Amino acid sequence: MTTLRVTRLHPPVSGLGHGVGAGICLQGCMIGCAGCESRHTWDPAGGADVRVDDVLGWLDTLPGDLDGLTVSGGEPFQQAAALAALLADVRCRTEGRDFDILIYSGYAWPRLSGRDDCAAALRHADAVVAGPYVAARNTDTPLRGSDNQEIIALTPLGRRRYGDPTALTAQGLQVTVDGDSVRLIGIPRRGDLERIQSGLAARGVTLEAVTWQG
């Protein structure tokens, strides 16, 4: 039974890829970029083990016209074998559709592409956003947290959707509310998180356990 350590399965998202797609955030990251907004995803013991079959079942419950799947983290390639198993099944289920698979990684592309253990997962990806997050280079670059990161298009669909960086547009943050939890999905610009927290405080809303502060 193949399992993934998962932080969250997002509802359809609009800021982490082309159009509207499914989003999976995997748990565990040993890179630990300074200024990361997702520090809660670093601990490999956090999140929960989820069977690949259950992730596929969740995908089946989402609207049928999704444009793709985005996998982020955490660091997805720290679970490379399980990731490859998931993506292989997603490929089979979406064959014949314009459905892209986009993966976010904190590893620079030369290192990532040179790792034998990552090759199987990469074979199923249409594009990868690769490179560590550098807070000082957060310049509102579309689909990237910082402008040192590269978008590597790997397939014809990936090149069509992600191959021309000048054609990409910056997306805003998506806000979801789950009980008493407020979740932000997307790539914040420098200062966005502090402005959100201050704006909520001005309206009498106090945030506790703010994940981007560790």
* Number of strand segments: 9
Task: Find the structural class using helix and strand composition.
Answer: alpha/beta
CATH architecture: Alpha-Beta Barrel
User: Could you name the CATH homologous superfamily?
Assistant: Aldolase class I
Helix fraction, binned, reads: 10-25%
Nearest-integer average pLDDT? 88
Keywords, please?
two-stranded antiparallel sheet, alpha/beta, 214 residues, seven-stranded mixed β-sheet, TIM Barrel
Walk me through this protein's architecture.
- This protein has 214 residues and is of the alpha/beta class.
- It has one domain: Aldolase class I (TIM Barrel, Alpha-Beta Barrel).
- The chain has 6 helices and 9 strands; from the N terminus they run βββαβαβααββαββα.
- The strands form 2 sheets. The protein has a 7-stranded mixed β-sheet.
- Helix 1 packs parallel to helix 2.
- The longest helix has 14 residues.
- The chain is globular and about 50 Å long.
- The two termini are 32 Å apart.
- The model has no long low-confidence stretch (mean pLDDT 88).
What does the secondary structure layout of this molecule look like, with pairings?
Layout: E1 3-13, E2 21-26, E3 48-51, H1 52-61, E4 68-72, H2 80-93, E5 100-105, H3 109-113, H4 119-123, E6 127-130, E7 150-153, H5 156-162, E8 174-178, E9 181-185, H6 192-202
Parallel strand pairs: 2-4, 4-5, 5-6
Antiparallel strand pairs: 1-2, 1-3, 6-7, 8-9
Helix pairs in contact: 1-2
Concise account of the structure shown:
By secondary structure, the protein is an alpha/beta fold. The chain is built from 6 helices and 9 strands.
